[in-house]
Write a structure and sequence with these properties.
Blueprint: E1 2-4, E2 9-10, E3 13-14, H1 18-24, H2 30-44, H3 53-60, H4 64-76, E4 80-83, E5 86-89, H5 104-117, H6 125-138, H7 142-156, H8 162-174, H9 180-203, H10 211-223, H11 228-235, H12 242-255, H13 261-285, H14 293-305, H15 310-322, H16 328-340, H17 346-356, H18 360-369, H19 378-390, H20 395-405, H21 411-424, H22 430-435, H23 454-459
Parallel strand pairs: 1-5
Antiparallel strand pairs: 2-3, 4-5
Helix pairs in contact: 2-3, 2-4, 3-4, 5-7, 6-8, 7-8, 7-9, 9-10, 9-11, 10-12, 13-14, 13-15, 15-16, 15-17, 20-21
Length: 469
């Protein structure tokens, strides 16, 4: 459990003292500082039932070993103490750091050289202690630490912070470089990268390369196998974010196997065209999405893979919008139906739409007659095409049937019932239709049931399931 000592608590408020910020925080690992501050907040929540090391690690996205190491670090400085599961915080005013004895003669030359390089400020005893602890703990040669200090000064200037120097040294040690020869060789290699990075970051409007940027470049060149020209070319397209944004881009290209400028440019040009087409499709359908990548994967690319061109897709999208089919799934159904019929080019799509709409003018007159508002629907087209092409009825018979359906709840279905009876009776002329006594028989529910042969059903463009308005 985390808790405050009496010295560290003041009326229940947490105080992060200036002494901690000035004398302790600059020399600590960033994760250790996160652990200290978050644990301090947990210590103040006395009613919190879950202020454990495990919770702290989970909330900070750290492993428990790192949290334990942080607690040990602050304990050695006298700011914490740990007894079992209990961790207690102490004020910096009463902190009693564990006494560490270092060989003064062993580090005398290190002290002289480090201060020589870090000329803009006086190195404090605490800072020296951090260097000594690091070297002792990781078996890092003092000559290697001197080289690291010089490298950091060259990158950041002679007022570089101890935290930065220790971070660079820690990275070197974790990579297995601990002797002066090994560190010197590695830093010489970084120096070569530094020159390249000055040009790369410069084209992005960035500042001088730091050690993190050098590590990025090492990954791009060695792990990803990009050459300088490729990295520089990609950097030219980035205006904000620096090396971190460039790393995201290059990682994406690496994962997709795009290793040359030509392949990258081809990918980006295709992506721009995909984005342009996707936005145009959404505009045609009256849709808007913040992120369109899922749409590209689910719809746009599959349509293009079927052989549809961009203009053909847009022509179909315009057709869907005018027919009140505004979902991407509606457009997908229309395009796949066209694909099944071998219709994939822009002209073929437009011709299909024209053929589909061939009866729209006549249907619109019927809608006006019935005082039905709204656009022509697929069901209307299916009815009308069946009357003309399957029943072979002329406009005079259709108009007569419409006059009988005026005022009915479902006029198109009512018309269809009348003409289905005429068709089954073999009537072919208006005179025969007018002379017949055949009339539709509506069930008590008011729903008109329709009978079709299998051939007639197959010729219908859609299955009629919706009521007419």
């Amino acid at each position: 459990m985390f808790k405050l000592s009496s010295e560290a608590s003041l009326d229940g408020a947490i105080t992060v003292e200036n002494k901690f910020i000035v004398e302790y925080m600059p020399y600590a690992d960033g994760d250790y500082v996160k652990v200290y501050l978050y644990a301090l907040s947990l210590a103040a929540r006395k009613s919190d039932s879950d202020d454990s090391v495990e919770r702290l690690a989970r909330r900070l996205d750290l492993d428990i070993a790192t949290v334990d190491a942080a607690i040990e670090y602050w304990s050695e400085l006298g700011l914490m103490s740990r007894l079992g599961d209990d961790v207690c915080f102490f004020s910096t005013r009463t902190a009693r750091p564990k006494i560490k004895k270092f060989d003064v003669d062993k580090y005398r030359e290190f002290n002289r050289r480090a201060q020589l390089y870090i000329a803009a400020r006086q190195i404090s005893p605490n800072e020296y202690n951090e260097y000594y602890s690091f070297m002792e703990k990781l078996n890092f040669e003092w000559q290697a630490m001197v080289l690291t200090v010089k490298y950091c000064v060259d990158l950041k200037g002679d007022d570089v912070s101890a935290a930065y120097i220790l971070s660079v040294a820690r990275n070197l040690a974790q990579d297995g470089y601990r002797t002066a020869d090994a560190v010197g060789e590695r830093l010489d290699e970084y120096g070569v990268y530094y020159k390249d990075l000055c040009a790369i970051l410069g084209v992005m409007g960035g500042k001088r390369p730091d050690h993190e940027a050098v590590q990025f470049y090492k990954k791009w060149r060695i792990a990803y196998r990009f050459d300088f020209d490729t990295v520089y070319h990609v950097a030219q397209g980035i205006k904000r974010g620096g090396a971190a944004v460039l790393d995201v881009k290059l990682t994406q290209y690496h994962e997709q196997g795009l290793t040359t400028i030509e392949l990258i440019d081809k990918y980006e040009n295709e992506r721009k065209e995909l984005l342009k087409l996707t936005k145009s499709v959404n505009k045609a359908l009256g849709l808007y999405y913040d992120a369109v990548d899922p749409e590209i994967v689910t719809y746009i690319k599959p349509w293009l893979n079927l052989g549809f061109t961009g203009p053909a897709i847009l022509a179909a999208a315009d057709y869907c919008m005018r027919n009140d089919m505004r979902r991407l799934s509606d457009l997908d159904a229309v395009l796949r139906d066209m694909f099944a019929k071998g219709i994939v080019t822009e002209q073929a799509v437009k011709d299909s739409i024209i053929n589909e709409n061939r009866f729209d003018a006549a249907i619109k007159k019927l809608l006006d007659l019935f005082a039905v508002k709204g656009a022509v629907r697929e069901t209307h087209r299916a009815y009308y095409a069946n009357w003309v092409e399957n029943f072979a009825f002329g406009s005079d018979i259709i108009d007569y049937a419409a006059s009988l359906a005026v005022g009915k709840a479902n006029p198109f279905a009512y018309m269809n019932s009348i003409m289905l009876g005429w068709h089954n009776a073999g009537l072919t002329s208006l005179e025969q239709a007018k002379s017949t006594s055949a009339a539709p028989v509506a069930p008590p529910s008011g729903i008109v049931y329709e009978k079709y042969t299998a051939d007639e059903l197959n010729k219908l463009l859609t299955v009629v399931t919706e009521d007419d308005d």
